[in-house]
Write a structure and sequence with these properties.
ten-stranded mixed beta sheet; binds zinc ion
Length: 280
């Protein structure tokens, strides 16, 4: 017959108490993980205007973002920037770009010429285009047919020059209309976006404000730096925040520092994601 001595009994009770504490801690940990998962904040990082016309700034930006730890990056490639930088005429640039890609990066089609070829019709749209684009709102007023043709040709250029099939489309200066969005879906692209939303080709738009910088004039530069201090703190509270970086940002050491501040802050508050991970 087994006799339990008082010492053994207290030892056994101690073990039971430890097990209970561990079990409770485990339950609390799982509940915390579940709470975090339901409030997951994602960040999408993109580099606009990837073109041989801005080669040195493009690679300076890439190097900086990699050094900051950004790997899943959307690269917005322009097939023929301002009609003088057809990717197919720059094999060395294309080889360098392919070499710089990581498995987590995505290539997106970004306009065709990145230059508007027609005057926007209404005064309001003309004003918006002038304020936002310096005449680069290429897809702002395109018809369905013209947009379709330009998308088809753009995809062909990227296939020939880079051997890639872009997953989505971003209109220059984020200016597009409903006909362009239909053309994007019909071209087999999974999504397009504007400054406030991602538009999946199938499904509801996703509210996802984008933070970007302006560098065209000193006033705009300082204004966008001040705005970034605020939006850089607010946007990570959104379900999906986007940071849009332009090669021209790297003309200013102030913007370079601001980008580093935003990326570092967002890395501690959000999960860096790919577009596929946020689409329905
Ligand atoms: Zn652009």
């Amino acid at each position: 017959m087994l006799h339990t001595r008082p010492h053994d009994l207290s030892h056994a009770m101690e073990i039971t108490a430890v097990a209970k504490r561990r079990c409770l801690a485990r339950i609390l940990h799982i509940r915390r993980l579940m709470a975090n998962a339901s409030a997951l904040h994602r960040a999408l990082y993109s580099l606009h205007d990837v073109t041989p016309a801005k080669e040195s700034l493009v690679f300076e930006a890439l190097e900086h973002l990699r050094a900051l730890g950004v790997t899943g990056l959307a690269l917005l490639v322009v097939p023929d920037f301002h009609s003088h930088a057809d990717l197919r005429a720059y094999p060395a640039f294309c080889a360098r770009l392919r070499q710089a890609l990581t498995a987590d990066d995505e290539i997106l089609l970004h306009g065709y010429y990145h230059l508007a070829d027609a005057q926007p019709q209404s005064a309001g749209r003309r004003l918006a285009a002038a304020a936002l684009t310096a005449g680069e709102g290429e897809f702002h007023d395109l018809s369905y047919d013209t947009a379709s043709q330009r998308l088809t040709e753009g995809l062909q250029v990227l296939r020939e020059a880079l051997d890639v099939q872009p997953s989505g489309f971003v209109a220059p200066a984020w200016l597009q209309n409903a006909a362009v969005r239909r053309a994007v879906a019909d071209a087999g692209l999974a999504f397009c976006e504007d400054q406030l939303r991602i538009w999946p080709s199938h499904g509801q738009p996703i509210f996802s404000p984008a933070l970007s910088f302006a560098s065209r004039t000193p006033a705009r530069l300082w204004g966008s730096l001040a705005a970034a201090e605020i939006t850089g703190r607010l946007l990570p509270r959104q379900h999906v925040a986007r940071l849009a970086i332009h090669p021209n940002d790297y003309r200013s050491p102030h913007l370079r520092q601001a980008i580093a501040r935003v990326v570092t802050r967002w890395q501690s508050l959000t999960v860096a994601s790919r577009y596929q991970e946020v689409l329905p």
